[in-house]
Every structure is written in C-alpha cells, then in structure tokens.
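Hi support team,

I'm opening this ticket because the web form for multi-chain structure prediction keeps timing out on my end. I have pasted the exact lines I submitted so you can reproduce it. The total is 621 residues across two entries, so I didn't expect it to be a heavy job. Is there a limit I'm missing, or should I split the entries? Thanks in advance, R.K.
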Amino acid sequence: MGGDPVGQGIINMHNTPAIADSILEVDSLSFGYRDRMVLKGISFSVKRGEICGLLGPNGCGKTTLLKCINRILHARSGAIRIHGRDVSELSRNEIASLVAVVPQDLHVVFSFTVLEMVLMGGTARYGLSGIPRKKDFLRAHEILEELYISGLADRRYNELSGGEKQMVLIARALFQGAEIMLLDEPTSHLDFKRQHITMEMIKRISEEKGLTTLITLHDPNTAGRYCHRLVMLNRGCICHQGPRDSIFHAGSLESVYDMKIKVERTDTGADYVVPHSKPVKNEKN
Amino acid sequence: MKKISPIAVVALLLIICVVIALTAGQYHIPLHTLRRIMLLKATGAAPGEDLTTPAMVFWSVRLPRVLMAVLAGAALSVSGVVFQGIMRNPLVAPSFLGVTHGAVFGASIAIIFFSKAAFAIETLAFIWAVAAVMLVYLIGGRGINTITTLVIAGVIISTFFQAAGSFLKYIADPYEQLPTIVFWMMGGLNNVLWAHVVRAFIIIISGITVIYIFRWKLNLMALGDEEALSMGVNVKAARVVFMLFATLLAAASSSSCGIIMWVDLIVAHISRTVVGPDHKRLVPFAALTGGLFLLVTDTIVRSIPGGEIPISIITSFIGAPLLGYLLMKQNKQWRE
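Hello R.K., no limit was hit. The queue was backed up. Here is the completed structure from your submission:
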C-alpha cells in the first residue's frame, strides 16, 4: 500500500463536484418484508461525481436501500432511476454495467484468487459465455497496481486480511467499470489507520474516474469528512438530507441517533462529532 | 522450473490406466495380444484362431466397459462439481438432491411394468431423475436465498422416492424382478453394450462441453447469488440450466450403469482441493479424475477372484471414510 494519506486534503474536502447533473434518483421508495416495512417513502437524488453518505443507526434500512438500488431486492412501491431510466426495466447486465457494489463483508465458500475475483467484475461485458479475454487480464492487473495490491493477485481471497479483502472488492468494483459505486460499510472491519486509507482511496478514485458514490457509514465523523452529501435515515425514513455543510450539525445527528451529540470544530477546520451524554432513548432497532 | 499441470498428470494417468484396464480382468489379455488385435482392426484383416476369443472379449466386452467407466465417472464427477458450485456447498451431490432416488424409481417401474426392457429402464430412469430435480426446484427454488431450501427439498424428494421405490420392491416378483432392481440399485458396468456407450458418449460429452463453455457463470454462481446478480448474471435462469445439465450427466450415467454412489461427491471435492474453485481447471480435472477413479474401481471389482461384486460396494467403502476424514479436517480448519 502506498504512503499514509491520513490527514491530507481536509480543507477542500467538501467542494461540490465540477459536473453536477443528477445521475441517481430514488423516488418515494418503499420496501418491506411481509407486514414489516423497512423503507418508507425514501426520496433523494445523487449528482454525478458526488460522494453521498448514508447515515443512521443499525437496522434503519441503509443496506436494504443499497440492495433496492441494485435490484437485489424489489421495491414494494416507488421508483429508482439511473440516468432517468427506471431500474426495474433494466436487464441484469445493464444494471451491472451501471452499478457496482462493494459488499460489507463477503464470505466465500470457494476461495478464488484475487485476480479471478477482480475479473469477475467484468462479467457483464464478456458476452453470453462470459469468458475474460487477454485485455481483461491486463486491465485487471492495471487496477490492482492502481490500488497498490498487485502483489496479492495470486493469493486466495479467504487468506487475506479484512483490509486486503476490502481493497480487492473495491478493485473488482472498479474493474466492473460502472458509473455508480455502492459501498456498504467499507470501513467497518478496519482499524483506525486503514479506515482512513480506504476512505482516501475511495475519494481519490471517485474523483479521478468521475464516479458517483453512495456509501453507508456508521461513523458520522468519517461521513462528515469525506462525503459531499448526506442522507440520514432512522426507522426506514429520511430524517435529513442535503449537502454535507448544511445538515452536518448536532441537531440532525441527535435526531438520527437518539442521543445527545456535540459537533466541535478543530483548528484545521474539520468538524468532529462526540457523544455528549447517555442516549436519550433505548435503542429500538 | 515450469510447474506440471495437474490436468496433464491425471490425463497421463488415465491413459496408462485405460491400457492396464484393457488387459486386466478374469480373462487376461496380454499387452502384445492387445496390440495385435488393434493392428488387425486397423488393417481390416480377420483374426487368426488364436486371437478369436481375445478379440471377441476385447471388442464386445472389455473396450465398451472401459470406455463406459471413464464416461460415467467423468459425468458423475462433473455433475457433482456443478451441484456443489451452484449450491455453494462442497458436501452436496446429485444423490443428495433426488437424482439418484428418482432414477431408481424410474428404473424400478420399467423393470416391473415394462418387462425389464433396456430402453424402458434407461428412459424412465432419466425422466424420473429429471422429474425429481424439477420437483426439488419447484419446492425449494423460490426466492433469492434458496440454497438451504433446495437442499431440504432434496431430502424431502429423496425420501419420497425412496419410499416409492421400496413399495415397488415390495410388489415386485421376488424371483424375476426383485433381483434385477436390487442389482441395478447397487450399480455395475457388467451389462454395458456399445449402444449404451454411443448414447452416453453423445450426452456426456455434449453436457460437459456446454458446462465448460459457461464455466465463468458457474464461477459467479459459486460466489453467491447476490454477487452473481450484481455482476449481471440471471441467477434463476442460470441455476435451472446448470441443474438440468448436471442432472442430464448424472442420469446418463445412472441409466446405463445403475446407481454408483459417492463418485460425484468425493471426486468433485478432491478436485476442488487440488486445482481450486475456478471451473476452467476444475471441470476438466474432475472429468479426468472421475473417469480414472471409476475405471480403477471397476477394474478392481471385475478382477477380484471369485466373481464380480457390485461397484457401489467398493465406491462406498472408499467414499464414506474419505468423506468422514474430509469433514473432520474441515471442522478442524473452521475451529482454527
């Protein structure tokens, strides 16, 4: 892995992207399992090149929302549009060429090599039989080099550390070549340093490749530091949404997490969130 | 130094074992006699008096049996590989998913109601094997997270067909039909004819070729349903196609050789351990290893002095302890 990027680029972190047309729209989306509604009328949009953070307590529907966007789960009502096209009308191949997913924690029974895992990302463009060609192998190696993990190419996925696995899944998503990247808790299994290295990597590749990134996060500090836009969920509903600077304050975070929160500004200009006291209510989710 | 491919090693072993198997048996055909028989066929000359019996044994009995052993072993093993891949479970096999008991049921119907006609036995065994898998999929194949429900549905359908098969055995004529059903259930290659070999060759080679062409999709299926969906695979359609072709392979073997247990599970499991999960290497390796395993086993059962014993007895004696060992090893790895 390259040098430690922790602490770099705080001042310009929240600049809005140069190109700002909406690419992903979620419109009145509802989803439930039998009589239990998980998402209730969710509406928001993400602009091209933005990093949008999904914040909220456990069980608030963040991962479910990502799965609905990728049509792993089918919405009960409402619509998801990518470039104005309804996702429900797209084929699986079309969705795969538009949306790449980095799952939170991928357990695999059969341990493929890192190179094989990355190559799987290109399946949507391999044709009917889906066999990667020589140029795909070259491109996969290039991406592994871009992420400084080319040394892992022949290692088995199950033998890697949590951080290495995360980088492999990001490499696979990049190899997929989609415009939208959905990341589900990419830092949840990482130590403090790795969290920031991974987030810096995500920010860098999003900017370089002009990706639209939707990312679920547990840590509001990470969200506040790296996201242009935030969508805050609680009990399946959106509590607050908007540009990071306008909604990243104690009031909005308190209503999401049901606890007293203080947002303090450091001398570098970055805001950080600290719990102020005990939670105001017992957690219900 | 360049690493020797395990596929090349097992292919070489298979060739050597085919030659040994062609010579070995209750009627021994020495290697030089084998060469003369082959040369006579190539030149089109009639065999001399000393070669009449060995040539007849070779062309009518030995060669079709050896070829069928290789084909059936390859079919069962690749079928096991596919089922393990789409179920993401290294300990499942067609026999766990109703294929075996469906085939037994179909063959028993043919033995009792169609006067043991070979064509009826093969056809009904195949139809009921496919029907069993279709029923398994109908019961357990709904929704996204279907792997566990499919395995449970396999247990349900297997149990049902086992009971139905037992009923057929109960009503079968104890002198004429019952021994045929029992021997068919224990499996064996002693009744293999050229017609079986030709039919099995077409089905098995076509089936393995199709599976090999779509090997990359099988890789994704082995990774997980959500992963495969995210990469653009139509998981439900792919699962149905792979299940049908895998069943076709297992049924093509069962309809000619009866029920041969454990080959599908054991060879698929060992092959994955040796060459890894990528089906580009796994499918050919398992096909060759399965052919080798069944060929060696069949050569042993027909070379034992005192008469041939059903092949499943040997495959079970090898397979069951080996699976127990693999399971213990796997549990140990998980604990670590």
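A quick check on our side: Chain B is about 80% helix and 0% strand. Let us know if the file doesn't open in your viewer.
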